[in-house]
Amino acid sequence: MLYHDFSQFMAAHIQSPDTRCVLALSGGVDSRVLLHLLARYVRDNHCDAMAVHVHHGLSASADLWVERCRQWCAEAALPFQVEYIQLDTQGKGLEAAARQARYQALQQYVGEGDLLLTGQHRDDQLETFLLALKRGSGPKGLSGMAASMSFHQGWLIRPLLHRSRAEIEAYAHAHQLSWVDDESNQDTRFDRNFIRHEIMPVLLARWPHFPQAVQRSAELCASQEALLDELLQARYQAALQPDQSLSIRCLLECSDAARAQILRMWFHQFGHQMPSRAQLDNISHQVLQAKADANPRCRIGHAEVRRFGDALHYVPVYVDISDWRCPININHPVELPDGLGTLTLTERVVLTDRSTEKQAVFGLNQCCLSVPLQVIFNPEGLVASPVGRKGHHKLKKLFQEYRIPSWQRRRMPILISGQQVIAVAGLFVDEHFSGSDYELIWGTTI
């Protein structure tokens, strides 16, 4: 019966003969059963499939789990791949960090139209629902996990979502399957494990059908959330700008409730971490309604929502490189910090075709070599005279006039001699140094 339901579920989601099925194989009983089901389905239907195990390095048994998964895949005649990851727990708990890193590692295996299979079941749905309830989530959070959802270029599917843990374990025993047990699943310091071991047994003893009721509630919440999105789609599209920012004017025309939902739609569409209610209130009342010349921001995980001009932008929290500086010489590329590429000062090459290169090029005259040059990123206190402008202007004012967002102003390389600005890469050359003898090439874009 379980294989029959699995086969129907897969047939409903495989849209092309080229669809690849990628199993997230942890080695636990859920994914172990999925491996058994998928291997049989592949034999019956000749579809493309593989399994990927993500090695978190959190358990002393992690290397053993890799070998067990490799052996099971060999027996099932399915390709097997291991992804080794390191967790970044800054700003989040261990469970959340592991989940995020795991899905990031799995993304590279999911091409257009491919399916990522994960082993969550009905008991997991109950745990997720209770965790969302504990956090005070609204309909979106209480929707829990969907049986299928878009993921990277394909889809994430959960074929076992309507099956209980007991049913899955019964299948494993019936087919004499072995699996690994993660000792951390017994640690009730983790909220999910506390619910699983301390709360769920009490609930199920009193109300045996509680998981089915939670599943219905989760589906109703998902339906209500989908309806909200449908009704607000026109307003959302009107607010969404070509650069993926949101129009402040459009947002301010909405009611508080509609504005909050549009913001959630924005976060969801681009895969950003969903804000809490307090963060939504901060965005709505502090960031949106700040003065036009203010620099408000709302931190959400490793990113910020910031205002620039008439729009809200979602930007990473960048490393502060204000104090970074480096000498630069002719034909010696400088490696810029924090992934900003290279900056090169070179003799001009005539008729060079750079149509396919991702770089910004500016011409300089010989005066630029009369003194030692440095590259910096801190514009504070500096002035310049861009070509075509009269007089000296503070870089702060020039950045405003060139409409450079505040978070990018300390990420644009500044070529200086002493306190004299020679050029701001990607933006302008000072009129005293403009020419055609040399080229300043920034091998990236901001």
Automatic annotation (TrEMBL):
UniProt GO MF annotations: tRNA(Ile)-lysidine synthase activity
UniProt keywords, alphabetically: ATP-binding, Cytoplasm, Ligase, Nucleotide-binding, tRNA processing
Compartmental location: Cytoplasm
Catalyses which reaction(s): cytidine(34) in tRNA(Ile2) + L-lysine + ATP = lysidine(34) in tRNA(Ile2) + AMP + diphosphate + H(+)
Binding sites annotated in the UniProt record for ATP: S26, G27, G28, V29, D30, S31
Domain Lysidine-tRNA(Ile) synthetase C-terminal residue range list: 373-442
Domain of life: Bacteria
Pfam families given in the database record: ATP_bind_3, TilS, TilS_C
Keyword Magnesium attributed: no
EC numbers on record: 6.3.4.19
Family the entry assigns: Belongs to the tRNA(Ile)-lysidine synthase family.
Domain notes: The N-terminal region contains the highly conserved SGGXDS motif, predicted to be a P-loop motif involved in ATP binding.
PANTHER family: TRNA(ILE)-LYSIDINE SYNTHASE-RELATED
Protein role: Ligates lysine onto the cytidine present at position 34 of the AUA codon-specific tRNA(Ile) that contains the anticodon CAU, in an ATP-dependent manner. Cytidine is converted to lysidine, thus changing the amino acid specificity of the tRNA from methionine to isoleucine.
Protein name: tRNA(Ile)-lysidine synthase
Organism: Vibrio rhizosphaerae
Designated gene of the protein: tilS
